[in-house]
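Aggregate trends can hide what the representation actually does to any particular protein. In the encoding step, the backbone of a single protein was reduced to a row of integers, each denoting a local shape. The record that follows shows the chain in one-letter code together with its fold in token form.

***
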Amino acid sequence: MVMYFHVIKLSLNIRFCASIKLFEGLIVLCSISIYNPHNAKNMKLFTNILIASILFTSCSKSSSTNTTTTPTVSATVPEVYKKIYGASSITSDGTYITIKSNGMPDHKSPYYATSNALYETFSGTTFGGTTFAKNPNSISEKAYTFKIPADPKVASSHAATPLGPIGVSLNGIPFFNQYAGPNQPLTGEIVSFDRYWGHPAPTGMYHYHVEPLYLTTVKATKSSLLGFLLDGFPVYGPEENGAMVDNIKLDAYHGHTHATADYPSGIYHYHITNTDPYINGSGYYGTPGTISQ
């Protein structure tokens, strides 16, 4: 009899959160106590419990939320990369750091489905004081693999950043460059940035072209490490040593070299600023790795 109920339990596959686990256990215990194929009244109650469990599971699936999980990190990964909390896994082969992410932001957005707990309505002003106007796209889950150099070096020839992902932020969301399309400024897209200054592409790819406000105001600070570009060099916020970073203080690639909290011996690093080109300038400072999805 107990084996019979284990089969039923597995078929229902109720595995979503601690509260559902508790409900599952109660269902099994109640079902075991009443199951009797020779008692019609008990069997009717047993059937009702099974139906209730299926409906509960179905509702749980339809109202699924995006939750932050601790990434799987291999022992060979340097400490600084462990700050990428939005990754599903981070590994290293000594030459490259491989970061995997589903690309789902861990903050609220009007671009989530209304059934998602992270959905919110939003109106008002967004980046640059512009009035928000939602684009027609929606966030969808991806399967990103970012492969970046573990020991980045300046490139002898600086490759231009492409449209699409040029790096990864701490919450696993891709950084995009300063263009809305081939040599097209962001002017027309800025109005569609949500409360945290990101938005999805037509493919459902949520991304940041500018400062990821959730990271700089909630998860970290405006002077913190915010992620890495594909060439392996780190990206920092718009403040440094208590002052705003101005584009004039940065080179053509939107960075400079000196010590940071994460790299006390010094390293080239990019800074996000509030004016064009925002994250990256005239290409990668180093040699970029790869991004697949």
